[in-house]
Write a structure and sequence with these properties.
Blueprint: H1 4-16, E1 24-28, H2 32-44, E2 48-52, H3 55-65, E3 69-73, H4 81-88, E4 100-104, H5 109-118, E5 122-125, H6 130-143
Length: about 140
């Protein structure tokens, strides 16, 4: 049973996050379940999502998909998220200037600072609440 208050809250959320509708976001995470979860969350906000299980694959997908935003895990095999974003930043504009959010279970201040110095604009710790993710995306695309 839902109340009018609950319905108003959902309406407010939809209106606030309406700016996500139609965005193209590339999610990079070596954990396929995380890719599926992030895609589900983002698609519920009207986002077009492409996922990649590796940074190497993601570098190719960026050129084809031309996302408005990147979301990348940090701890990945072969090429980690910080190395990935440094490689992205060497691409010609507009690809090299795509806003990016680091998402990781590594939650120390040192890890956060390293991710931001590597080229991410934001940093969220796993597990990520859907509303927190959407709010961070709105902040970043508003600034970009």
């Amino acid at each position: 049973m839902s109340s009018d208050l609950d319905n108003n809250h959902l309406k407010d959320d939809r209106e606030y996050f309406q700016s996500l509708d139609g965005l193209r976001i590339l999610v990079v995470d070596d954990d396929v379940d995380n890719c599926i979860l992030f895609a589900f969350i983002l698609e519920s906000y009207g986002v077009q999502v492409m996922t990649s299980a590796s940074a190497i694959e993601a570098l190719e997908l960026i050129k084809q998909f031309e996302p408005n935003l990147l979301i990348s895990d940090i701890a990945m095999p072969e090429v980690d998220g910080c190395s990935f974003i440094r490689r992205v930043r060497t691409l010609n504009p507009p690809l090299g200037t795509i806003p990016a959010i680091a998402i990781t279970a590594m939650c120390t201040e040192e890890d956060r600072n390293f991710a931001l110095k590597s080229g991410f604009q934001s940093y969220l710790s796993k597990p990520v609440e859907p509303t927190d993710l959407a709010t961070e995306i709105v902040k970043i695309i508003t600034i970009a």
